[in-house]
Design goal:
With 345 residues, the protein is of the alpha/beta class. The protein contains eleven helices and 16 strands. The strands form three sheets. Strands 3, 5, 6, 7, 8, 15 and 16 form a seven-stranded mixed sheet that branches.
Length: 345
Amino acid sequence: MRALQYRTIGQPPEVVEIDTPEPGPGQVRLKVTASGVCHSDEFIMSLPENEYIYGLPLTLGHEGAGVVDRVGEGVQYIEEGTPMAVYGPWGCGLCYECSSGRENYCRNAGKFGIAPPGLGAPGAMAEYLIVDSPRHLLPLGELDPVQNVSLTDAGLTPYHAIKGSLEKLPSGATAVVIGVGGLGHVAVQILRAMTAATVVALDIDEAKLNLATDVGAHYTFPSEPGAVDLVRDLTGGRGVDAVFDFVTIQATLDMGQAMVGSQGDQVLVGVGAGTLPVGLGATAAWETSIRAPYWGSRPELFEVLDLARGGGLNVHTEVFSLEEAPAAYEKLKNNQLLGRAVVVP
């Protein structure tokens, strides 16, 4: 089969021919219908050799959807031909976190060497994907896999981040989204669907600010130092109730900390390398909270897909063939994508 693999440290991924995998006991094989391109992939491919831990060659793609093609021994209740979305943060299935569906925080994954597809295990940018357990599959139903595959991360991650701040976002509250890329433009929609807050979007790219307006942001501003004053003016100087930072470089972290108000949340979702001071006197606002959530739970992915079924989410997508996938990553690296790139084998 064809697959997109990261094969050499510091080099672009390549489309190669590899053996078609067979499902083992308890496993499910999908014929892949769509796979999402993510900044996390670009992040791990930018790591130097002494920091890279994901194995080579690595078939990319941690956002996956497909049709059940074959099941391994012992698999029950899943019929061949069923369209499925893949829940990516695989866990052991045995610990307390996994038993409550929060496999994104599995306490045993590191010990047992359990890795998500595309982030250690073979991923979905291939013609076929082996899913380690049926519990990591969610029925897509009538949802278009190409349009909705990105919800498995680009929808689930902001959904999980925003759910943790819902009590801070009643009517009259203000929420800021920094970075209106693949995740940020979905975050704007989730905030509009689940809260009564005023939503403000910040980005350095005018096209992305226009996209933010199109998907529901009440206000958009260029992400530059003057944005702090503009945003604080919107709140009468009080500051905002939640900042969701999908960039997390030093400039955006400092900006977010400067605009969050008393008892507000600063939620760090991006993979940038910035850091924040914490403690008494570190910020001008009392009792602010800083969180760094990771991905989301299995029940939350059901909720995200239901939100999409109800028309509450629409991922702006650019579609590439598997042969074009290296070009998709090049566009991602150069900040030339609007919304999310999806690869169709």
